[in-house]
Amino acid sequence: MKKTFIGNWKMNPQSLKEAQDLVNVVDEVLVKEGSNPNLDIIFCPPFIFLENIIAMSNLSKSSQGFMVGAQNLAIENSGAYTGEISGQMLTGLGILSVIIGHSERRWKLNESDEVINKKLKSAILNNIIPIICFGEKVRGDSSKEEISKQIQSTFQGIDFKDLKKMYVTYEPVWAISANSGAEVDNPKNASNSIDFIKNYIKDNFDTGSTQIDFIYGGSVNFDNVNGLILENNIDGVLVGGASVRKEDLSKLIDAMNRLTK
Ligand code: PGA
Predict the structure, then answer these.
(1) 247 is catalytic
(2) d(CA 179, CA 174)
(3) What is the residue with the minimal CA distance to atom 2 of ligand 1?
(4) 84 has catalytic annotation
(5) In this predicted model, what pLDDT tens digit does every residue of 113-152 receive, in sequence order?
């Protein structure tokens, strides 16, 4: 059973040295435990560390290695967009995937449905694997309606035949560790929500031969990861807080590595 770990570092860590330490810690685990083709690892550092972390991924001491993704991209490939980084620039750097539609961009930075849709189109245009996030804000009955709306607007006008692979992440906002009172979803609920998302996409969009992996995100750590990734419906985890704490990260990769071997 192949699973994926995606580390969303958000606006962390504060220095390149700390960023390199995070990568080294994972490399050590992978070297110690030997190669495991069943675990894909993707780090999504802040823009300013990308080049360096890509260089580290090329020099990884483990044969398994890891991939590097970005946390954001611009809606256009070039032009007058002060402060933005385009998909074309990311591809030029060797970036393979990009997070789109994360709730922090949606809610804290007011990113609209339209912008998220344009970013998805730009990722596809530039052959970058999208890591799309969906999830309800508050736990409760309206979550399905909220998630269906997000899927509808995000996938509007998307031509899936140009897309080989995509990660679709179920990330309920109430479960994200940075939010007060957050707690991890239980594996069965997470799996049911993913089932809903999977079927909704199947019933409403012609995704053709696009390979879609379904990911859970929200307060994942080494203690709770087992139950989550043992669910058939859950192909991997998107991890924020625990992916920038060295010891937690090392334990998490270790747990996932053992479980998937
Ligand atoms: P968390 O964050 O693991 O700290 O809950 C996940 C995310 O927001 O991507």
Answers:
(1) no
(2) 7
(3) 240
(4) no
(5) 999 999 999 999 999 999 999 999 999 878 999 999 999 9
Written as six digits, the tokens of 149 are 């709306």
176 lines ligand 1 (CB under 6 A): yes
Cβ-defined contacts of 221-228 (< 8 Å, 24+): 221/184, 221/248, 221/252, 222/248, 222/251, 222/252, 222/254, 222/255, 224/184, 225/252, 225/255, 225/256, 225/259, 226/255, 226/259, 227/186, 227/187, 228/184, 228/187, 228/190
Strand partners, 145: none
Q: Which two tokens stand for residue 245?
A: 């704490």
pLDDT tens, residue by residue, 196-216: 999 999 999 999 999 999 999
For the four alpha carbons of 243, 95, 47 and 212, in that order, the dihedral sign comes to negative
Contacts of 82 (CB under 8 A, 6+ apart): none
Distance 145 CA to ligand 1 centre (A): 22
Assess contact for 207 and 201: CB atoms under 8 A: yes
